[in-house]
Structures are given as C-alpha cells and as structure tokens.
Amino acid sequence: MNILMVDDHPGNLLALEAVLNSSDYNLISASSGEEALKCVLKKDFAVILLDVQMPGLNGFETAKLIKAREKSKYISIIFITAINQTTEHVLQGYSLGAVDYIFKPFHPETLKLKVQEFVKIYQNHEQTKRRSELQRQVELKEVNKKLESTTFDLRKNEALARVIGETLLDTIITFDDQGYTLSVNPAVKEMFGYSMEEVLGQHIVNLLPEVKYNNSESTPLQMDSIKESTGQLLEAVAKHKKGGGFPVDIQIGEAIIEDEYIYVCSIRDITIRKNMEQAKKQQYRLLEKLVEERTQKLSLANEKLRKEIDERKKVEEDLRLSKEHFYKIFESSPCLIEIRSLTDGRYINVNPSWLNYTGYRYEEVVNQNTSVLYIRQNPNQAKKESYSLKTTDRIRNAKIQYQTKSGDVHEGLLSTEIFDIQGESCILSVITDITENVRLESEMARLDRLNLIGEMAAGIAHEIRNPMTTVKGFLQLSKSDPEPFNIEYVDLMLGELNRANSIITEFLNLAKNKVSYKTLQPLNPIIEGLYPLIQAEALLSNKSISLQLGECPKTFLDEKEISQLILNLSLNGLEAMNAGGQLLVKTYTENETVVLEIQDQGCGIKPEFLDTLGTPFFTTKETGTGLGLAICYSIVERHNAVIDLKTSEQGTVFFIRFHEIENIKV
Questions:
Q1: For residue 380, is it within any domain?
Q2: φ and ψ at 106, to 5 degrees?
Q3: Consecutive H or E run containing 647
Q4: How many Cβ atoms are within 10 Å of 449's Cβ, its own excluded?
Q5: For the chain, is the Cβ count within 10 Å smaller at the N or the C terminus?
Q6: What digits encode the pLDDT tens for the residues 311-338?
C-alpha cells in the first residue's frame, strides 16, 4: 500500500517514516509540492501526508492540483503543520479535500491509527471499485448477450444504490435546479428528525438555511452559489425539525439527465468534530492564560529578584561603609580599643590609642592569649564585678584600673560588647582613660574639703561660743563670790555644756572618713523596727504615719546609720506638717535599685533653699543646729547611694536609691 509523505525538511520525513514504518506500507517521500505531483502521476496512493508550509508550491496548492485530477481526487489527504493552527487555515485545508488536519508536534500513535484507518478506507474503496468494474464487465457481457436482462440489471443497480443510501450515516438528498427535494435516504430521520415523506418536495433551504462559501461567514443558501460550488466541501448550518441548528459538512454533485440538472447533496453531521475543536480552542485559551499567568509570575519573580539584588548591593555598600567608618573610628578614637577572641582569649587587634597609653608595640600584643593589661576593679566601687572573658554580660562604663607596660596603674571606664567576626565570637573592649580626671577630681575634692573646713570651723566657733560664754560668765561670777552656786546655775551650765557636746558629736557624724559597718541585709526590717518610735512621735502632735513596704532584695547597709537617716527624715517630715497630716514611708525596686521614699504633707521647701539643702549649720528651724540633713547626705554618700527630692505646696518627697547587689556576680 503506497503512502506519500511530503515535507521540505528531511528530519520531518524521517520522523514520519519512523512512526509509519510497517511491512504493509510502501512509504514514498517527496521534498516539495512539485515532486509530490510527479509521484501522484506515476503511482496510486492510499494516503498523502502533506506539509502546509513548503517553498514553491505549498501544501494547499499541491492539494488543489491533486484533487483537480480525476484519478487522484479521492486520495485521502492529511495536512500536517506546526505554524498555521488558526480556524481559517484549518477550514481552508478541509475545503481543498483534506480528510484531517494534524498539528505539530503530533502524537505518533494518533497519527499511526489515523493513517491505518484511511488506508482501510482506501482498500475498501479499491475493492468496491474492483467489484464495480467486474460488475460492469458482467453487465456488458449480459447486455451483449441478452438485451432483455437490461431492465433486471437496472433494478438490481437501483436496489444496490438504495441499500447503500439506507446504510450510509450521511444524509443524501437529490434536488432539482430550483432546489426542491426529489429523493432522500433514511439517514435524514436520525440527522434531521424528519421522515423521508416529510422531506420530499420541500425546498433544500428548509434543511440547509445557511452555508459558508470559501471559508467566509455563514450566508443564506442561494441556488446560484450552490451550483457554482459543486464538487467542493462546504460548511453549513443544518436545521433540525425541532428548530435547533447544528454544523454539517456538505458536498454537492451535479448530474444531467435528459437535459435536466439534478443535484446530489451529501450532508455529514460534524457536531462532535466541532465540539472537539471548541474543546481544543478552550484548552488552547486555557494554555494561553496559564502561560500569561506564568509569565506574569516570572516577571514578578524577576522584579523581586532584581529588588533583592539591589537591596543586597545596598547592604553590601552599607556594610562596606560601616566597615570603613568602624576602621576610621577604631584608628582615630582616643579611647583604648581592643578586640579579643572569646574562644582562646587571643588579641585580634588593638588601636593606636591602646598602644600609646599602654606602651606596648603592636607585635607584642596581637595573637597573645593572655591579658597584658591586668585589668582589676576600682577598689572605691561598691559593686564587685568580674571582668573575665568568660562572662557574656555587657559592661557599661565600669570603673577599673589597668597596668601599663612600665608598671604604672591608670584609672579607666570599661565598656564591652559581644559580636561575631566570620563565625568566631569576639569581645570588643573600650577603655576611656580617666586617670587625669580622677586626679583633678581628687584635687577638687581636697580643695572643697578645705573650703568646707573653713566654713564649718566658723560655724562651730559661732555655735560653741554661746554656751562657752554662759559657762565662762558663771565661773567668773563664782570667782568673785565664794558662796556656793545655786543649783539652777549649775544645771544651766551643764545644759550649755551638753549642747556644745551635741554640736561636736553631730559634727563628727559628718566626717567622710567615719567607719561604716555595712552588712548584706534587707531594708524593710530596719523601718519596721523604727515604726513604733516614729508613730509615737506622730501621735504626740496629732499626726499619723503609713508604711507601704514592697518586696526588695538585700543590699549592704549600716543598720545604725540607716536608722539615723530614716529618723532624721521622718522627724523633719512630721515637724513640717500641721495636725492631721500623714507621713508615708515606702520601699520598692526600680531599675535594679532599692528605693526608700519618705513623703510628708507639709507646705514644701522654698525654691531659694533647695541649693543649700544638706549644707552644715543651715536650718530654717528656730532651735535647729542645721546638721540633721547634712548628716543624712553624709550617710547616703558613705553607702554609695543617691538622694534627691520633689517638693511642692502639697508636700515634699525624699528618694534614697541604693544599688541592688544581691544578685551581682562577685
């Protein structure tokens, strides 16, 4: 069985040959339309696989010439294309006599099955032709032998044609040149819903109201156009008896019998094919939509990637600038900066200021695993902290002492920060050298003490002169009068001496070098022990006291000094209030400090007195010595605490903040 494959690409021919290779087929290849026509003239073919896009004669032109030849017009033609997939090109292929239209890339098994079926059709057609030819020969012989058998043969042929018409699934209608139906086969019942009798005599337009000519839009059927389209495969819209329309392919043949034109119309229902085409179109549109969505996603992904690249470049540039800034700060900082590994304590880098202050050379320090500065805590600090590399706690401005290469001990403020360098944990230590500041502060403190000594000496001289004058006067009086002293005079002199002793005692309490015996203990029990005494003093003047003691950690306290501090502030508060006032004593924890708060409801402290509070011998009381608040400030300083206050017309609040050290690592 001959099969012709026409394609201008040898690779495509090889692909077709690989798919259709069979002992039942004789595969013949042609690389152009002209070569295909030569093959058709020489041999008969069951199927022609024809490429649409070819140089010279294209597939459509080649098919048209093949169909124009009487001997080859019934050959089944399958168009194969990878480019022209539009409905217009497909319809053009069908109008030129193609039996199928396949798009590249094709499914090999589908193509193989289609060719197999068209070969079977060709074989059946050839068998029918051979039978018809034999039949004609027999009939001619019989005609020659017996003219009487002509009528019998005609009836036999009519019966055969009737059987063929009845068995065909396509509807076959014959009509005259006016368009009126002359005959119809039984398939009209299945296709149109009419009986054969209902169709006879009707105009063809009742069954085929619209026809597409030359792949144009559907137009009403016209007899003149029908006559001109004989032999062509046309699409039309058929009308069912129930009123619905459905697509069909029609092919019209023309015959002349005794000078009368008879037309035969073959009608094939292509609803399934159209549905498949519509499904393919929907699938194609869906694929287009998916491609469009995927393209949009890729565009968004590309845009996101571009932004990420830009951001990464920006981060890299910021990192470069950050490194550059850090290097400049590291090199030009007046502070001592060192970077050490937390893994082995190795010195990674030190800045010029570090080398300048310590006296070491760079080569003597870098890559050393042991500390060369011998950093230790400042002995004047209340907090006792560990500055080992093993700790991961950050340090902020801790007072320390460090030793230089020459053995000199310098004062400094230490701050640390933990960070990673290329996956290695490191510690950055910054020491601000305050040796000169400490020396200046010590000198200023010494000068302040000398100044304070002068002021206090004048105050003491003034305060003690009065009782001494009284005692001196009575002693002079006793010298001139040998009579024994009146007991009242003796009591008066003792009182004046006690007053002078009290002033001297309170003055000694101001001494900064006074020894404090501090132990780790809570603050609340001290207040609770003083509560009855303060309450009794308050009740004497018709006043009250309230305690609000919160949970506080332990801290280092001298119980006697703290008791004196609380009594002095509480009694001052009671004296500042009128009858009915309430004194509030409160404790709580705030920002890692223990806070003692003493609040009265007096008239407040005048603004002009605030700067002189705590100064020895300054008082607003008629009988006060001016040493009570000064002693309180001295006690607070010896405990490394902080005292401040808030005052208004509604009263005064004193705040004493002690460092919380119960949980400090020692």
A1: yes
A2: -90, 160
A3: strand 642-648
A4: 12
A5: C
A6: 888 888 888 887 788 888 888 889 999 9
